[in-house]
Each structure stands twice: as C-alpha cells, then as structure tokens.
Amino acid sequence: MNISQFKDTFFEKYGNRNNKPVLFFAPGRVNLIGEHTDYNGGFVFPCALNFGTYLCIRKTNDKKLKFSTLNFNEDQVTELKELFRNEKKSWINYPLGVINEFLKKNIKLTGIEFLFYGDVPNGAGLSSSASIEMVTAVAINEIFEAGFSTLDLVKMSQRAENEFVGMNCGIMDQFASGFGKKDHAIYLNCDTLDYENVPLKLGDNALIITNTNKRRGLTDSKYNERRSECEKAVELLQAYKPVRNLGQITVSELDILEKYIKDPVVRKRARHVITENDRVLEAVKVLKSDNIDRFGELMNQSHDSLKNDYEVTGNELDTLVYEGRKLKGVIGTRMTGAGFGGCTVSIIKKEHAQDFMLKLSKVYTEKTGLKASFYQPEVGDGAKRIG
Ligand code: GLA
What we know:
Elements: H1 3-14, E1 22-31, E2 43-44, E3 46-60, E4 64-69, E5 76-79, H2 93-104, E6 111-118, H3 128-143, H4 150-165, H5 172-179, E7 184-189, E8 195-199, E9 205-211, H6 219-237, H7 256-260, H8 264-288, H9 292-308, H10 315-324, E10 330-336, E11 343-349, H11 353-368, E12 373-375, E13 384-385
Parallel strand pairs: 4-6
Antiparallel strand pairs: 1-3, 1-13, 2-7, 3-6, 4-5, 7-8, 9-11, 9-12, 10-11
Helix pairs in contact: 2-3, 2-4, 3-4, 3-5, 4-5, 6-8, 8-9, 10-11
The protein binds alpha-D-galactopyranose.
C-alpha cells in the first residue's frame, strides 16, 4: 500500500487538500485451529494477516456520509440519520452497521468521507467483512475521540455483523482483526475473552493458505443450522449437568453424549466441538514447546472432525486437504473458517513449498475443474492507524 498515492486518490475524489484525511488498516485472519468453537464458548487460535482493509477517512462539516472503494465502482452517499436500517444488499452495510453502533452509544457524528481499499480475497473465508468492520470502528473511534477500548470495538463490530448485516457469526474474526500481533497467534477463550499472544515460531516451515475459489453459496444457512444443532445439544445436556455451552464439557466426559443425546447428528456435532476444544489446548502447548509435527497432526485431526462430525467441508476443501497430505513436506493441512468453500491452511517444510503448490494446483484442477490460488501471508498486527 502506497500511503501518499492512496491519499492522492482520496483528494481526487473528495477535493479540499487543506483538510487532511487519516489512514487506518485492519487485517483479515486465518484460523490455525479451533473451528466452530467460538460460538460454543470454546477456544480458537487465529492470527491476523498482512492483508486486510485500508481506510482513508475525514470528518466534514455537513451531514453526509460518503462511501467509496477502490475495489469496485459503487460510490454511495447517504444523509446522517439518528439510526440506520439495513435496507438493501450493499457493501456499505458493513461500515453502516458499525456507524450505527456508535450512534446507539450516543456518539455525536458529523459528515464523513470514506475511501476503502481491501486486499483480502473476497468470499474466501479470510474475514474480509470483519476487517471492514474493524477498520471502520477503529477509525471512527479515533477521529471522533469516542474513547472505546479495542474490546468494545470488537464487540461493536461483531454486533454490526450479527444484527445489521444479518450473519450470526461468533467473535473470532473481529477479535483477531482487533488484537492481532505481528508473528503471533491469538489463543482466545471465547467464553471469558481472556487471550494470550503466542509466538508463531514455525522454524523452517512455511504457512500457506490455499483458496478453493469455490463460490460459497449455502454458507450462511448451513452455519446457522450448525449453531442450532449445538444449542440443541446444550439443551439436552441440561439433564446431565447445568451447562451454558459446549465449551463447558471436556473430552473426559465424551462418553456421556451417547446417554443424553440420542440424535446421532446432534451427537456428532457436539463431539466435534468438544474434541476440537481439546485439540486447541494441546496445539497451543505443543507450539510453545516447538513441536510443530504434533501441531500438524492436530491440524489434520481437526479437518477430519470437521469433515466427519461437523460436516462443513465438501469436495473442494477435502480434495485440497487429502491430496495435499500425500505431498512431500506437509506437516499439517486443514480447512479454515466457516467451511463449505473458502480456504485451507497448511504448514509445509519451506524446501517443499514450491513443489506443494505446483502439484496440488494440478491435481485440484483435474479433480474439481477449479483453479486454486495460493498465498504465503505474513502474520501481522491488529487494526491501527497507519498514516
Ligand atoms: C466464521 C465465523 C466465525 C467462526 C468461524 C468458524 O468465520 O465468522 O465466528 O465461527 O466461521 O470457526
């Protein structure tokens, strides 16, 4: 990102070079392990990426909110209201939902000019939407001196996504975008929101993200279906002990599922969440002791569980993972994010990384007719002002 060029584009669009805009960045994320555990009060282990959403922003003296993006040609202008309603399918619902959160908290806003630019591949499950929300939240918080903490901004962004955009996600994506730290992963307890930045020391291994490039169609409805299956499991487990969420059941209690959950599908869903939580605990421990091989095994087990028990993978993700595992130098590989499409995350010996990408690309196209994309991201910081 060339900051002065981005500001120039801002001036070309909005004029008035005497009133300086400021620049913010919020990252996308990749989750290393701990999938579909966040809304179950469990553990996750994501990290922030060096790609995300940039925002050049400036206050004005009128009451107009002006939105523009370098990603596509869809400028929009709207009058500042007391409260907004999501009326149409538009990209501005992401920033508008966040603006609404500030309005609900009685922060007095004026007109604002926005210029966004995102370099997270869209619809790839790498949290492009959370990065738009977080960059908006951090920017408005600063230019209007609203004084909210990063955790407040994370929660406001999640609420914008849940209530305004209408996607009932957990807190992981916004949290990772807010609290990321360069070269660290975030070990987050989604029940208490306690977290720790754990150094991501991969030694002579590379982190590679592979995009299925499959259009995600049913993701939202299937996501909500999984959430209700987990709620059902919690309801049934009340006969065993009073639990608020599946995160409160440990692997040593797995046996009780058979007795209390008769529906085999609901039982499988619960088993995934409980075993996945345990995998995160172990993954963090082994990473701290530099046991990357075991970390990779846990990633593999995570994918198998997401395929067999949680059933959120599908042919494209499975092809990448199971064909990938046959290749030399692969330490671990799994789907990341909500599933059904999107990306896999893999740890691979650096010396075999090129070969991995070449070979996997070929066999993936043969088997699915699609073309995969590969990224070798850096692990970056959370949302912040950059200029
Ligand atoms: C999506 C959601 C997250 C999380 C993951 C699955 O990315 O936005 O909150 O539930 O799916 O782990």
